[in-house]
Write a structure and sequence with these properties.
globular, Rossmann fold, 2 domains, 37% strand, Tumour Suppressor Smad4, alpha+beta
Length: 285
């Protein structure tokens, strides 16, 4: 057993919908047995068992969505996650199986490799109903649904009315989420460590509504002024909540941080250049 990682307690979780994740779980689980204290293995996205087992690290096999799902399940008891990509993009899940084997001791023992990233607390308020609360790693998107007419959302920041946005909706995201839906909607790319929250209108019916970066401690309220029957608040692409006129979504930075272990063989800019091809010249053939 490696002396640096021998006493680290590690739990393995894999995406049950990905057969390749289960195969990788068997491979890495066997590899890890002699190198750390394996306290559990499961084809599941719920981190509750890892919390109960007192895990120091959770190895998550799947893709970015799998990693986000596990982080959300941990609530305010976050544990550093080591993401092993067996999916497509692998932007948050930085390791391949072979890369993790090569860096296993460092990933477990070097706390300097842990990124502390902001998350959001999202509350849905509806008159007469208890508040529903959710944790978002990437974003909360309020999006028009059937019959797909323009909707109007009122935006307040720290209790002060900012604007009404007419359009297809609004994205509120963390710096980690800036490279997700926000990027495709024309929002800014932000380094994960930046202390800020991003607001990006979706196809606004106004040339003056541009993406906005605000301070990390702001409290954002979004009021459903005029919405379609199918209008929905979507958290991390994993939870959907129908919205009606008069509903209100409150969003603020969570007290908990998303903890993810970086691959030590790559720079912080590696994923931006290799996965998103940022700054590269187009290939005209």
């Amino acid at each position: 057993m490696s002396p640096a990682s021998a006493h680290r307690r590690v739990f393995f979780l894999s995406n049950p919908d990905k057969p390749e994740a289960s195969a990788a779980l068997d491979d890495l689980g066997a590899f890890a047995e002699s190198r750390c204290d394996v306290v559990g293995r499961s084809d599941d996205l719920n981190g509750a068992a890892a919390i109960a087992a007192g895990a120091d690290r959770i190895v998550v096999l799947g893709g970015d969505g799998t990693l986000i799902g596990v982080a959300r399940s941990l609530g305010d008891r976050q544990i550093p996650l080591i993401g092993v990509n067996v999916g497509k993009l692998g932007f948050l899940a930085e390791f391949s199986v072979d890369e993790l084997k090569g860096a296993f001791d460092r990933a477990l023992s070097e706390d300097g490799l842990i990124d502390h990233r902001a998350m959001l607390d999202v509350g849905l308020h509806r008159d007469g109903d208890p508040e529903s609360t959710y944790l978002a790693v990437n974003d909360c998107v309020i999006q028009a649904g059937p019959p797909f007419r323009i909707i109007r959302l009122g935006v307040r920041i720290n209790g002060e009315h900012l604007t009404d946005v007419d359009g297809d909706g609004l994205i509120v995201c963390t710096p980690s989420g800036s490279t997700a839906h926000n990027l495709s909607a024309g929002g800014p790319i932000m380094q994960p460590g930046v202390e800020a929250i991003i607001l990006t209108p979706l196809n606004p019916h106004s040339l003056t509504h541009k993406p906005l970066v605000i301070e990390r401690d702001a409290v954002i309220e979004i009021h459903a002024v005029d919405v379609n029957p199918g209008t929905t608040a979507i958290i991390d692409g994993q939870v959907s909540c129908a919205m009606s006129p008069g509903d209100r979504v409150s969003i603020r930075r969570s007290a908990a941080s998303f903890l993810v272990v970086r691959n030590p063989q790559y720079t912080k800019w590696h994923k931006l250049v290799t996965k998103l091809h940022w700054g590269q010249s187009p290939d005209y053939g």
